[in-house]
Amino acid sequence: MSDAEMFGAPKVSSELSPWPVSRLSLTLKEWIERLGVLWIEGELASIKIGPSNMFGELRDLQIENSVSIHSWNVAKIPNDLKQGDRVLALIKPAFWPKGGKLTMQVIEMRKVGLGELLERIERLRTQLTTEGLTSIERKKPLPFLPNKIGLITGKDSDAEKDVLQNAKLRWPDVQFRVIHTLVQGEKAAPEVIAAIKELDADPEVDVIIIARGGGSFLDLMVFSDEALVRAAANAKTPIVSAIGHENDRPVLDDVADLRASTPTDAAKRVVPDVFEEKYKLEQLRQRLFMRVDTFVSNQVSMIEQIRSRPILANPYTFIEVHEAEVERFVDQMRNRLENQLSREDMQIGHLKQQVRSLSPQSTLDRGYSVVRDADGHVISDASKVKTGQKLRVRLAKGELGAVAE
User: Does 324 score more than 70 pLDDT?
Assistant: First the structure.
C-alpha cells in the first residue's frame, strides 16, 4: 500500500473528489523515482565542492531551466570544475515531498571535451547526409536580384557592417530586413531559429543570410546545433551561411543552399554588381547589334544574288522555254495524228474494195442474174423447177417475172 492510500486519498482526482497536496507530492515522487538513473548534459550555473560532498546547479539555457544537483561522493567529480563548464552527468532524480523540491543526485560527472564535441558534430553531419539534407539536388538557387534580403547576425557586429556595406556598394538600392540575435552561447540557437522562421514567413524576403565574423570552435558551436541546422534545412527561402570559419566549419554550412567564406563574400554572392551588370548589358547590346547587322547584310547580299539570276532578270524566260517545248510537242502530236488518219483511210479504202469485189451486185453488173421461186428461194438446179412455175429474176438493175417452160 502506498503512502497516499494510507492517507485515504481517492485514487482518481475529480472535482468532487480532489487530491490533497500531499497525494500530488507523493505521486510526483513515485513517478520521478521510476526514471532511475540517466545521463544528462548542461552547463554548470554554480558549483561548490567540499571534502566529501558537492552542491550546485545545472542549467539548460535553451529552455532557461536549472535544477539543483548534489553528490555525497566526490570521488567521481572532477575537482577542477567551475561555473560555465559544459558537463555530462549520470544522475538519479529525487523529489522531496515536504519541500516540493526536485534535486538530482550526481553519481558521476565529467567535462564535455573538444574531442567529444567533434565526434558529436560528425555524427550529426553523417545523419544529415544519410537523410539527404546535404545533397546538391536539394539546394535552392539564389535569386538574381532579391527583392529583400533577410540578415541574421549579432547587433552592431562587424559581420553586419560587412554585409550591408558591400551589398550597397554593389547595388545601392538593395533592401535588407535585419534581425539581431546572439551568435554564441546557449541562448543563441533558439534566437537564430526564431529569426529563420520569421524571415522565412516574410513573402518579401527572397534570401536569408546568417552571418558571423568567425571565432573559436566553441564560439561557433551554436551553428552546429541540430535544431538550428534542421530549421535552416526546412526553410523554403534560400539560406546563405556566412560564418567565416574555414577550419572545423559548422554543420550549417553543409545544409545551407550556399556557403560563403566570409560575410563580405556572402554580400558579393547574393547581390550582383551594378557596374558589372551594366558592362555585361553593353557587351550584350554590342553583340546583338553585330549579329543583327551581319544578318541584315547577309540578307541584302542574298537578295542581290537572287535578283541577278536570269529568271528574275527576265521572268518570261521560263515561260518562253516551255512555250517552245509545248509547241514542239503539239506539232509532233499533230503529225502523228495525221499519219495515223492517213493510214486508217487507206485501210478503209482497201476494205471497201474487198467488200465490193465480194458483193453479189458486182456479179449482176457483169450480166449475171439470180433466179428465185415465188417464196424467194434461189434456184440453182433446173431439174427442180416445174413447168409453168412462176419465177422471179433479179438483174443488175431491177427484177423480172417469168414462167418456166
Answer: yes
